[in-house]
Amino acid sequence: MIVRRSVLTAFLILGLTMPAASAVAATRMPPGNRHAEQPPVPGASVRRTKAGKTTFDLKYDKVYELLSTDHRLMGKIKSTASAYGIDPIHMIGAIVGEHTYNVDAYDRLQSYYVKAASYAGKAFNFSYDGEKIDDFVARPQFARCAGITESYQLWTCRDEVWRATFQGKSVDGKSFPNNRFSAVFFQPFYAGQTFGLGQINPLTALMMSDLVNRTSGYPKLDADDAGAVYKAIMDPDRSLAYMAAIIRTSIDDYRRYANVDISGNPGITATLFNVGDPKQRAQALAAKGGLPEENYYGWLINDKLPELQRLL
Fold first, then answer.
1. Is the pLDDT of residue 32 over 50?
2. What is the pTM (predicted TM-score) of this model?
């Protein structure tokens, strides 16, 4: 049985990875959208929605209906958010954004459990062109990551090495695609695939493994056991924990690297849930100054915020 901890206990645990208080108070991100109109929705999302013979409005209504009628799911969202010390509206925003723009919601939570079970027992691994991920990250180019034990820092380091050394390059006589680390090595079924209620990428789940283990008690993930990773991100209960960990980490990264508090703007946390790479984005923001901006996905969440808050 997984033990849910109190918010206070969660913060004590999270304190192992959260930054020390800054000498200068963080700039608080104001509520609402910075863009007067919604930024353009990517063509891939538009095409996917048309192919499904539906619309963004219909998909939004469908996921809203799921959340408003499934009281068990809402209870899980609230308790999970509490364990990670975040407002549950951030999790609502991530779920609504994913199911409005990326996938269509199932009618019932039970359907997500059934879908997760359909992947159980499948034999697959994380690899590229015959090279398994464990062998790949043992290459000498990853030596600077070797001493890191915390999962978020470790896989972030490996992702940075990928971008700098392998992405779109030929190394040791082998050419690598000009694509994200997560798409090349961690999506064995087809590129761009994410899974479950939170539509979480396997690489992101590996990054969150230690935080989820400490806070929710779920077993740590191993890239050599792809089946266990997929189980974690497809099972709704576990998926919620990983979703909350992602949001918690984004908030912490923006406070640590950009000295900006985004915890009061669910449109920004939803944007980061959508685009990923919070550490790199926070560092880029710190270099140029100013405040973060919502994308099309986060814009919807802030625009619909009064309606979404009624779910809670």
1. yes
2. 0.86
